[in-house]
Amino acid sequence: MTISATGLRKRFGDHVVLDGIDLDVAESTVFSLLGPNGAGKTTAVQILSTLITPDAGEVRIAGHDLRTDPDGVRSAIGVTGQFSAVDGLLTGEENLRLMADLRHLPRREGRRVTAALLERFDLVDAAGKPAATYSGGMRRRLDLAMTLVGDPRVIFLDEPTTGLDPRSRHDLWQVIRELVEDDGVTIFLTTQYLEEADQLADRIAVLDHGRLVAQGTADELKRLVPGGHVSLRFTDVRSLDVAAGALRAAHRDDDALTLQVPGDGGVRSLRALLDELDRVAVEPDGLTVHTPDLDDVFFALTGRPTLEESAR
Ligand SMILES: Nc1ncnc2c1ncn2[C@@H]1O[C@H](COP(=O)(O)OP(=O)(O)OP(=O)(O)O)[C@@H](O)[C@H]1O
């Protein structure tokens, strides 16, 4: 395991923020810690990246023990937080050069790395402009590029796409995927966006009130909840009546002329459903399958919708 943490605890005064959590992250994978505002995600990242010390718990990162060898941990990791390290008065190129100097890269090597990163992150045209003039997406890309100057094996991304428009978010997702696929980097990502975890993560852990309430792949988590159903639409009330009589467990909506039938949406159950409708000689006008998504998972696990959901 590239990251392994056991029994991680942290409290601020009376407020228990992490209440004994265990995490394992395999090399060259994306791990996502998912949770609403204030769940303790940033605190976990700050502990794993040596910025604050835990009250209890064992952590090893890239072979280094956090307590006895924090310098070893620091040399293996990169962090881009919610508060960017980008200096708005400097140009993109100057920001990268400054980072190369801080990492004690020889001057020539610093220039080479800077040029390569500007190219890779599509910032060549903007390289000579002050970072304050960059869009949100460009700033995040520059921030991530600055993290890469030190060639880290493990990167912590704390809510990397919060506040970005959908296009910039998708661009950043692509960059993150390439880091894992091409460079073999291990990514520890925190997010409030279920879709982001679903898109990027090999494994997801759901954090709620300082405890992990579930861990697994996106598919494993989705299997934890029922919530799947097939929605059948009809052209007239008579067909709806007949179908509702045949499919007893269905929930009907007379205004929309629809029936919702619980089910996993698999081919076998769909066929059985259509056979049943055939038997009573009604044909639906349309059919949609709803498989549970991570929003359903969060709700099933915590009894509350996510912020994303409740803000809608
Ligand atoms: N230094 C601190 N002193 C006191 N309380 C703190 C401190 N740092 C964090 N907290 C509290 O710990 C809780 C968890 O904060 P944390 O920033 O880890 O959550 P988060 O999941 O990252 O949320 P967000 O999505 O808002 O960043 C919050 O209630 C916060 O107010």
Automatic annotation (TrEMBL):
Keywords tagged on the record: Antibiotic resistance, ATP-binding, Cell membrane, Membrane, Nucleotide-binding, Translocase, Transport
Membrane topology label: Peripheral membrane protein
SMART domains, per the entry: AAA
Domain ABC transporter: 3-234
Keyword Iron applies: no
One annotated GO biological process: daunorubicin transport
Any GO MF annotation of the entry: ATP binding
Localization (cell): Cell membrane
One GO CC annotation: plasma membrane
Coarse class of the protein's main subcellular location: membrane
Family as reported in the entry's similarity comment: Belongs to the ABC transporter superfamily. Drug exporter-1 (DrugE1) (TC 3.A.1.105) family.
NCBIfam families reported in the protein's UniProt record: drrA
UniProt-recorded name of the protein: ABC-2 type transport system ATP-binding protein
Organism encoding this protein: Saccharothrix australiensis
